């Protein structure tokens, strides 16, 4: 495997001290008055998914709902609000946000948090960011008022023309920002659902041609290349039957075929059932790292999730969740992620965390009522103040 060196996009900024380890937290941009929420009739209070959070109720005795944000129900599209998030994140060692990013019906969705909040914050260049294209179908999963979670509002797959429009927007409006996160000078772009991406084009061959086009356009824009990152879970197909002569039977063959350069997870729930104690759930998830080490030839960036409880999105039914989520166990998993990076010296020193603010799924670094800044203190202790 070729040696990869991390180019920390933030290190170019005078205000930020370069960190040895980049801690990248996924950011769910659902807490602002997004105009397109009105198109699908969700969150009539006009505060985005905060509505599901402050209306959540415990399902049984001891169920820790609702979760209460220490900062209140703020509008993330306000640059002053995002200024505080950036200052807090970087103070505790979270130096990259990975924005969940959407493109439906050939136009963006939920971009205001990034465009109007993050990028217009006076301290935006203190922190790096990159995009994870959350290209899943958008269904009624987010709508607490709808018990039928199968209703689809927008399809996640795109055709070639739509993809080319999207690529132009991404390169011109994001990749060219000083604080867009890069590895070896290459902008990092993550794809959430590879199967959905393939199906949108009709075949793996056409999907690969679209990614080749993306790479060529990135080079035309003056970058040395494109760093494609795969989200590792069951949505990566292990067979590509429509490719002539392809006999691949592994996910690794698939990511190699499409030219991905790294992979990480979005959430432990994607491959470890959300049940029982947090300490046990985390151990099961992390046990997969050694399996992937042997199964894949591209670097894996270790991932740590904080918890799982998506019951605020299901007010009439009880969903499986993880018990006793706490900063102490979270810190132990962060230490294991650091150890993983230390044992893989030939790859970029990046870990990913779910999430900065997945309040409706019970996984957030952002300060909350029970533990305050406890999860952020854990990050700081492991990555900024190691003993």
TrEMBL record:
Organism this protein belongs to: Mucilaginibacter pedocola
InterPro entries linked to this entry: WbsX
Highest taxon, organism lineage: Bacteria
Protein name: Glycosyl transferase
């Amino acid at each position: 495997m070729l040696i990869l060196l991390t180019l920390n996009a933030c290190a170019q900024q005078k205000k930020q001290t370069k960190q040895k380890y980049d801690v990248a937290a996924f950011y769910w941009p659902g807490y602002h008055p997004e105009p397109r929420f009105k198109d699908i009739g969700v969150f009539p209070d006009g505060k985005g998914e905060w509505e599901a959070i402050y209306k959540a109720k415990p399902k049984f005795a001891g169920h820790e709902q609702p979760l209460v944000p220490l900062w209140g129900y703020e509008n993330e599209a306000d640059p002053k609000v995002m200024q505080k998030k950036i200052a807090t994140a970087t103070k505790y060692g979270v130096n990259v946000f990975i924005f969940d990013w959407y493109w439906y019906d050939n136009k963006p969705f939920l971009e205001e948090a990034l465009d109007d909040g993050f990028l217009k914050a006076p301290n935006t260049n203190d922190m790096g960011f990159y995009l994870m294209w959350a290209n899943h179908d958008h269904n009624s999963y987010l709508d607490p008022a709808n018990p039928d979670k199968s209703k689809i509002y927008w399809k996640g797959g795109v055709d070639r023309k739509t993809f080319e429009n999207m690529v132009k927007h991404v390169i011109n409006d994001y990749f060219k920002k000083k604080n867009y996160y890069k590895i070896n000078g290459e902008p990092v772009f993550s794809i959430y659902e590879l199967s959905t991406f393939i199906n949108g084009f009709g075949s793996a061959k056409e999907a690969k041609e679209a990614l080749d086009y993306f790479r060529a356009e990135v080079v035309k824009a003056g970058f040395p290349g494109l760093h494609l990152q795969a989200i590792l879970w069951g949505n990566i197909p292990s067979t590509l039957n429509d490719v002539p002569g392809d006999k691949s039977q592994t996910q690794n063959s698939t990511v190699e075929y499409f030219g991905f350069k790294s992979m990480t997870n979005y959430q432990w729930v994607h491959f470890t059932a959300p049940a029982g104690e947090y300490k046990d759930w985390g151990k099961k998830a992390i046990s997969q790292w050694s399996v992937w080490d042997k199964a894949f030839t591209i670097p894996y960036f270790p991932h740590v999730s904080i918890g799982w409880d998506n019951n605020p999105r299901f007010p009439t039914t009880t969903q499986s969740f993880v018990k006793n989520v706490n900063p102490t166990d979270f810190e132990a998993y962060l230490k294991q992620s650091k150890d993983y990076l230390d044992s893989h010296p030939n790859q970029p020193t990046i870990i990913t965390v779910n999430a900065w603010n997945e309040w409706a799924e019970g996984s957030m670094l952002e300060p909350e009522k029970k533990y305050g800044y406890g999860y952020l203190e854990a990050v700081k202790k492991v990555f900024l103040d190691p003993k």
